[in-house]
Design a protein that fits this description.
Length: about 325
């Protein structure tokens, strides 16, 4: 999600030592290689589709995995966020390893933020986003702008472990973000609330996603996503043509939506409209860019076109 700052610290903090004990109790066998195979990176699923730690999908009914069911204080941390939770994991970065520079521009990231709670870390671990670089201290709670270029460097010998929660948020969550502070703010009165382990942690419940990807994208969501992309466009003479093509496509999509909604009978018509739009706009938009260093064409395709009609939709 695009944020007004590279990093925002939420007014929450947690007992990192208690969390580290729970993580250690899960054992080495629960850890898995990073899905993209990044050297020195591994992960431990905590919320996954139907609670299956072997399912790395973004889409489906999300539930706690057996590892999270065995970790009561971690459950308390999830619940304290006041958010509807999507796919979430422990992410481990070994000593002298890194998460290479990238930006998250898939549809999934248009409305989601990634919450980081450092559990095991060192002062030399550096998280870079945009032009900013910070050290997230153990027990703190942060979100960052996933659309900006970012990377993590661990130049220490010891490993780094973060709880990483993907979420669209919720009322209480965004209230907390509103009370948060930018990474470059200095607040003498800053005092995050400590969420300590409690006797009833094993019984704590939190909301998980059950809806996360449309079968056919509504015209309102599509216009919102196009608005987000255009608002961060770098000036270029070709924008007028792209605007015209996009407006024509959006109006056609709206007409089809009011005719068919997401009923199966209309999906081929949606696909045809989408194909014509992508075919027309691709040669032009490949030369355009967003102000966060992303190519506009790549962001448009991955944010909208790939999921406007799901490939698996019958």
């Amino acid at each position: 999600m695009k944020l007004h700052a590279p990093f925002i610290q939420l007014p929450l903090r947690f007992d990192a030592e208690a969390l580290a004990r729970e993580v250690a109790a899960l054992g080495e066998g629960a850890w898995k290689p990073h899905p993209q195979g990044f050297a020195g990176n591994s992960m431990l699923p905590l919320v996954a589709v139907e609670g299956d730690p072997d399912d790395e999908s973004f889409t489906g009914v999300m539930r706690p995995t057996p590892a999270l069911e065995r970790s009561p204080y971690l459950r308390r941390v999830f619940a304290s966020l006041g958010a509807t939770v999507g796919r979430s994991r422990l992410m481990r970065l070994s000593g002298h390893a890194e998460v290479t520079r990238h930006a998250d521009q898939f549809y999934y990231w248009a409305e989601r933020v990634r919450v980081h709670v450092p559990i095991v870390t060192q002062p030399t671990v550096r998280f870079e986003c945009g032009g900013a670089a910070i050290n997230m201290a153990a027990g703190e709670c942060w979100i960052f702008d996933t659309w900006r270029q970012h990377r993590v460097l661990n130049d220490a010998v010891e490993e780094r472990i973060h709880l990483v929660v993907d979420t669209v948020g919720g009322g209480a969550f965004w209230d907390a973000v509103g009370r948060g502070r930018r990474h470059d703010e200095r607040r003498p009165d800053w005092s995050p609330t400590l969420i300590e382990p409690a006797a009833d942690d094993a019984n704590v419940e939190f909301a998980c996603e059950t809806r996360n990807l449309p079968t056919v994208m509504s015209p309102w969501e599509m216009n919102s996503l196009f608005g987000l992309l255009f608002s961060h466009a770098v000036p270029h003479p070709a924008w007028r043509t792209v605007h015209e093509l996009t407006g024509r496509f959006a109006r056609q999509w709206q007409g089809l939506w009011f005719e068919f909604g997401d009923e199966p009978t209309g999906r081929e018509r949606f696909r045809e409209a989408l194909h014509r739009y992508v075919e027309a706009v691709t040669p032009i938009s490949q030369t355009l860019a967003l102000d966060n260093e992303l190519p506009w064409h790549g962001a448009m395709i991955s944010t909208i076109a790939q999921v406007a009609v799901r490939p698996d939709a019958v």
